[in-house]
Every structure is written in C-alpha cells, then in structure tokens.
Amino acid sequence: MAYFRSLCVAAILISFLVPALSMAVEFVTVGPRAIGMGGAGVAVTTDALATYWNPAGLAMTQTVDIRIQGGGQAIDRLGLRDAIHDLENFNTSDTSAANLAKAQDIANRINRPGATASVNGSAGLYVKGHLGEHAFGFNVSDVPTGGGFVSSPLQASQPGGPNTPISVTGQMALRGLEARQAAFSYAYAFADKTFAIGITGKIIQGAAYSGTTTLQGGNGVGITDHFGKPTISTTFGIDLGAIYRPSSWLRFGVVAKDINKPTFDAAGGGELKLEPQVRVGVAVNPLLFSYVNG
Fold it and tell me: pLDDT at position 93, please?
C-alpha cells in the first residue's frame, strides 16, 4: 500500500495525463454538490463555482456568493492498485515454478493497456455578484492533475536460471500539471432567465512535471520524489458556456473549455498543449414537475 499512500500525499500533482504533448485534461470535481452529479454540473451550477463549471450559470440567479473549497479524488483503472500492492509484497526468494507463474500474473495485470493510477483535485476562492441581468465572477484557484502509467512493461524471469531468485522489474512514467489560475467571468441572461450565455478568461501559471519510478518485486514503489522538478510557464485560457431552461424543472447546459488551446512549456523541453473540451449536461428536478391529465 506504500505506493498509493505516496500517490495521495502528492496532492499537488493530482488525473491521468496521457504520454503526449497534446492532451485534454479531465474535468476535476469542484464543489461537493458536483461529486454525484457528473455532467449535470454544467447545467445546474449557479453559485460562485459556476466560474469553473459553466460561466452562463452565474446569470441564472441574482445572488451574491463567496465560497472557499477544496477537494480531490483518486482513480484506479483496471485494478492497478491491487497489482502494485501484490508486487510490493512479492517474495523474490521463493524460486518455485508456482511463484514464477505468480510473478508473471502480477506483471500481466500491471502491463494491461489502460491500467493507470491518477489523482485530481482543486482548491480556491470563488466569488459571484450581479448587476441586474448581468453577472460577474472570479476565482483564484489551484487545479492540479497527475498520475502514472507503465512506460517499460514488467518482465518476470529468473536471470540466474532455474532455482534462483525471481526478478520482476519495469518502469512507470509519472506526469503532472498544476494549473494555478486567476479567472474572470461574465454572463448575461435573456428572456426572464430562460437562456444565458457566459465567458471566462483565465490567466494560468502552469507547473509541468515529468519523471519515472522503478517497479520492482519485493520493493516499495516511490512516487513523491520521482516527479522531477517543475517547469513553470504562464499562458491564458478561454471558456464559453450556455444554459437553456425551457421550464422550471428542466435545464440544458453546455460548456467549451480551453477553446484557445493554452500552451505550456513541457518538462524536458517542447510544449504542452491543452486540447479544447466540450461537456453537455441535462438536469431534471422531478419535484418541480407536475402532470395534469385531461
């Protein structure tokens, strides 16, 4: 379990980034209400957190709101956590054929395509205000993402021949991006708040990390000391959003994040470009719905 304890301690390197210089960072869960709502967050968030989820939501209610929040989550894809735990506790001195088969099984589980470990989180100050149908918001926040994937597949063998200690070794690549940002949002509502549009401009300081760690049977897997030193650069991003509310119990929301493809300096040289993302959400409140037959 040392592997995942270390991964969670690395809270500033918090979602899996594919090994490429052009990528789409996963939506981070910002705010407790959004945890169980999935994509619906872009349709129903109307408080200060709308500066992250969908700026159009700011104009759907005429309120003043100030929030300080923080949180995160860990993601284990295809059982990598249990496989790493088994690797750390593997007995390399058992030279039996059965133990060699066990080593190969562990290697196969870790090497599976799509087997990754990741964490993501957010923390910040979020503020919302309004002037008639015009709404404004800003946030100062830190949205870090990070994780690991196997870069050199594990090999199980007995280098010294039969009846010698078993070796299970490979490598895991570690990637991280910490986005420290100041975001400013504007939104406007039309037709008695039936429809709203919004825009967010973000000044982003990115800290990009890249490193590797060794995977070896019978040894703990180190994480926090292997991400490497950050490469710091500053850029800007733009988000656009809209919300349509045809009735009091139904809402549709859409947001396009990073439409200008923000670019950071990548660790080790080159550039790291964030691809635009579009998320659509539908929210239904059955408590506000009534049906009259006749």
Answer: 93
State the pLDDT at residue 291: 41
d(CA 76, CA 110): 12
Task: Identify the helix (H) or strand (E) that includes residue 110.
Answer: helix 97-111
**For 59, what's the count of Cα atoms within 13 Å in the CB-facing half-sphere?**
29
Q: What is the DSSP letter of 40?
A: G
Sole residue written with tokens 């870090």: 144
Per DSSP, 17 falls in state -
109-154 pLDDT, tens digit per residue, is 999 999 988 888 899 999 999 998 899 999 999 999 888 899 999 9
How far is the C-alpha of 67 from the C-alpha of 4, rounded, in Å? 30
- In this structure, the number of other CB atoms found within 10 A of the CB of residue 241 comes to 27
Listed in sequence order, the residues at least 6 apart from 154 whose beta carbon sits closer than 8 Å to its beta carbon are 87, 106, 107, 110, 111, 168, 169, 170, 215
Single out the residue of 204, 153, 148 nearest to residue 176, CA to CA.
Answer: 148
- The pTM of the whole model exceeds 0.90: no
Residue carrying structure tokens 């209610």 = 61
Segments of 191-267 assigned E as strands: 195-216, 231-247, 250-257, 263-265
Spell out the domain ranges in the chain.
2-144+168-288
3-state secondary structure of 37: coil
Residue type at position 258: D
Query: Which pLDDT value is given to residue 292?
Result: 38
Distance of CA 48 to the CA centre of its chain: 20
| pLDDT under 70: residue ranges of the chain | 1-27, 29, 31-39, 287-294
Contact partners, residue 83, CB within 8 Å, separation at least 6: 106, 109, 110, 115
Q: How far lies 150's CA from each of 39, 227, 265, 267, in Å? A: 29, 14, 23, 18
Using DSSP, state whether 59 is helix, strand or coil: helix
Q: Using DSSP bridges, classify how beta strands 271-274 and 22-23 pair: parallel, antiparallel or unpaired.
A: parallel
pLDDT of residue 272: 85
